[in-house]
């Protein structure tokens, strides 16, 4: 059985509070759980985090996988430091692929050099069109006068 440490939503509508629970990974978010480890109240200023760090570390040592949010909260409460044995370090999240950005910059530069030429061609066409419109308008007005 794969155990996860995750949050279960409680509280009224628009006023969430959460319980930190150890639950089977197959059970639904607000479904059956094994043990309540603490609470998290995000609406207070500052947020209130009350965890039983010893029980959280117990579950982590027995293979429980925390969700991302729970891991952040465990870092704040100090349980993650207890579990890893390392001092608290800043979290570094993997960056999204930056290689396509570099590749996309090159075509943008090429497009930028082509755009002025395209704009000039459009400007020339636009300058020719009003003359054509004027001649057609003058022809229409002449026909109406007759």
What would you say this structure looks like, in words?
The model has no long low-confidence stretch (mean pLDDT 76). This protein has helices at residues 53-61, 68-77, 79-84, 99-145, and strands at 3-12, 15-24, 35-41, 48-51, 65-66. It is globular and about 35 Å long. The relative contact order is 0.10. It is built from four helices and five strands, in the order E-E-E-E-H-E-H-H-H. The termini are far apart. Helices cover 49% and strands 23% of the residues. A hairpin with a 2-residue loop joins strand 1 and strand 2 (15-24). The chain is α+β, with helices and mostly antiparallel strands and 146 residues long. It has a five-stranded mixed β-sheet with strand order 4-3-2-1-5. It has two domains: 3-84, S16 Ribosomal Protein, Chain: A (2-Layer Sandwich); 97-146.
